[in-house]
Amino acid sequence: MTSTTCLPAKLLTELTAALPADTIHTALAERVSYSYDNSRLQALPDAVVTPQTHAEIKQIVDLCNQYHTPLIPRGRGTGTTGATVPITGGIVLSTERMNHILTINTADRYATVEPGVTNQTLQDAVAAHGFFWPPDPTSAAYCSIGGNLAHNAAGPRSVKYGTPRDNVLALRVITGSGEELRTGVYTTKGVVGYDLTRLIIGSEGTLAIITEATLKLTPLAEGKITMQAIYRDIESATTAIVAMMSQPSIPCALEFMDQQSIAMIRHYSELDLPENAGALLLIEVDGNQDSLAVLAKNTQRVASNPGLLSFKTATTSNEVKALWATRKALSPALRTLAPKKINEDVVVPVSKLPVFVAELQNISQRFAIPIVNFGHAGNGNLHVNLLIDPDNPLHAAQAQPCLHAVFDLVLSLNGTLSGEHGVGLVKQPYISQELDPAALRLMRKIKQQFDPNGILNPGKVFPADNTLVS
After folding, report:
1. CATH dotted code for 223-331
2. Can you name the residues that pair with 225 across neighbouring β-strands?
3. For 7, how many CA atoms within 13 A lie in the half-sphere containing its CB?
4. What are the pLDDT digits (tens) for 320-352?
5. How far apart are CA 126 and CA 247, in angstroms?
6. Of 3.40.50.1100, 3.40.640.10, 3.10.290.10, 3.30.43.10, which CATH number belongs to 9-97?
7. Does the model's pTM come out above 0.90?
8. What is d(CA 239, CA 282) in angstroms, rounded to the nearest whole number?
9. Start-to-end C-alpha separation, the chain
C-alpha cells in the first residue's frame, strides 16, 4: 500500500474550498483506519471524507464525477464481505457523523434518521415510545442504519418481522450521477411507479448514497418468552424448525446451533449443555400478555419430538441473558479458534434444512475441513463456517473446492448465496452461479443509469478481476 495520496491536486483543492476543514482526511493513519472492514481484505484510500449534511455529500459526488474519482460509501465498517474496501483507491465517504434521529412519528409509526445512526441508538430511542425497528443484526451496538440498508442486514427478528426491505418506507439519496432523489412513501401502502426504495436497499453503495431513511416502526409486544430446546441430533432439531414455522403463530426468533457449535461454547456458557447434545434451538415468542403463555405452551408442544433431550423456559431476565449469551458467544469463539475461517450466510427453504445440514456434514468429511453451522434457522439463513487453517497444506488445497461444494448444494436446494452479508468482494466470483446472464446484464444497465461514470463503489458486486491486499 502506498502512503502517498494519488488524488488530483485540483480535486483536493476544490474539496478543501467546498467543505468544512474537519471533513477531509489525508493523513496516512486516518486513511489506514478506513482501508478495511470486518473482512480480511484491505486497500488504502487516497482520502477520507466525513460529511455532516446532504448538501456536503452532493458537493463531494459532483466533484468526484468531474474528476472521475472513485467514491466508496461506508457506514461503521462492520460488514464481512469487503464491500467498503477501496480497492481502486479514491475517496472513502463515511457517514458516521450523520448520526441524528430527525423524526419519530408515533401516530403514523415511522422514524426518519440519518444513515450514521447506530441500530442500537435507534432501538433505544423508539423503545421509549413503545416501538421498535425490526432489523437487529448481532452488531447492533456498532453497525449503522445506512450499513444495514446497504446490505439488507436483518438479524434474528427477521423470521417474524422481515428484513430492511420490508421495514423501510422511503429514502433520500444522491445517485452516482449526483442527482438528488426521494423514493418511497410515508404510508404503508403505495404502488405509484417502480419500487426504487427496495432496489437501492441491498445495492451496497453501488447505485446511490443514502442521506436519510424513513423507517417503518412496529409496536413493542407486551411480553416475550425465551426458550431453549436441545436435541440429540440435527435431524430432530431441523424437523422441529419446520414444524414451528408451519404454525399460525411463529416465533419472533429461532436460532440454531449444531453439535460443533455447542462443543465450542460449552465452556463459555453458564448453562448445562449435555455432552450428547446434537443441536440446540434458541426460541422466542412474543405477543400480548393474555395469549403469551398459551403461545409458549403450543411452541413447546410443536418443538417436541422423540429427539428432544431437554426444554428450558427462562423465568428471569438473567436466565434470558444466559440463553442469548450462549448464542452470542459463538462468533468470538470461532474467531479465536480459526481466525482465518470462511464464513458464509447462505439461505435455503426451511423445508430443506434437514437435508441441507445433513449434506454439510458429508461435505465436511469429504474435504476434511471442519464445518460449524449456526444462525437464523426460522428463515433458513445459516452461517456456514469453514474452519480452515491456510497454513495447513490440506486446508489450503481443499478450501475453495469445499466452498464450491457448499454453494452447489445451496443452489441445488433452491437457496441463495447470501441472506444478509451481501456480495461485496468475497462472494463476487460466485454470483454468476445464482444469477443468469440476462439478469446480470440488466443489473449492469441499472448501475449505468444510476452511476454513468462508474464512480460509486467500483469493482464491487459484479464479477471482476481485483487485486487485494490481504
Report:
1. 3.30.70.2190
2. 285
3. 28
4. 988 888 887 787 778 777 888 898 999 999 989
5. 30
6. 3.30.43.10
7. yes
8. 15
9. 11
